[in-house]
Amino acid sequence: MSRKNVATVVALGVTLTVALAGCSSGGSGSSSSSSSGSGGSGKKGGLISVIVNDPSNPYWLTEGNVATAEAKKLGYTAKVSASKGDVNAESQQVDTAISNHSVALILDPANASGSIGNVKKAKAAGIPVFLVNAEINQTGLAKAQLVSNNAQGAAIGAQQWVKDVGQKASYVELYGAPSDNNAATRSNGYKTVISQYPGLKKVAQQVANWDRTQGHDKMQSILQAHPNINAVIAGNDEMALGAVAALKEAGKIKQVKVGGFDGSPDAAAAIKAGTLQYTVLQPVATFAKKAVDEADSFIRTGKTGVSQEKQAFDCILVTKDNVAKMTAPFTLSQ
Question: Looking at the domain assignment, is residue 246 inside a domain?
């Protein structure tokens, strides 16, 4: 992902948090720098297993690609699999990671609560687990949980959305997968900002599970019931782009403002085309790489090199004013 004069968004700051907004936690809250587990061999090499959600989404594709590239750069082999948000599929993939004698597991958890057992299973087998993109509702199991600062990202996105939409409008919200804490965190962040403007009325909210097709279909249904809406705010770019497609088909794209969240290449193209007002870039390329670096450190030294298990990486607003600086997937040049 690195290019000359290009830096991933980590340059804009990393916020380490013990408890991220929108997340419930339990367990011991132990530090990920602990020397417990199978780390500290002083040697590198072996298989790092990577489990993402669905690589048909460019966000998760980038997550897997970056983690794989960094693992290989550091002298490991890597194998990527996809749970597609299914805890049972994830369980089978963790079993495979165990049978393959993985030295570490990079996991984008399928479910904040349901994935806890899978993390416990890997830990019991002596495999250190590093969570990326989404959290689980327990601390002290994974060596690290690296995610976007979703509360911060939702706030800057909603502020831009209000700027684009104005202070009086009828709008709808497309909501992500309820099993993912990120969905609630972003929605709550939107509400905190938008509720300050009494003239902004939410007439519908639909779950579209981070999916473009579902975003399209839910938007079609919403338009039948509410044909005169003025705006859409979505929990991610895929749902936003689905809404854009439905609005185009209905001939309403010029009168309805749409905002997204992720910073995907397709979202960048839609901003340039004028059909998407903005996106909020998640630094997935940064924290996917960082997770592998921390895994490598733990394998060699028994410590991740970071004092906190939960680590939040700030997001960046992308609009027509800076979209040209997106020179690689989920990467903004300086």
Answer: yes
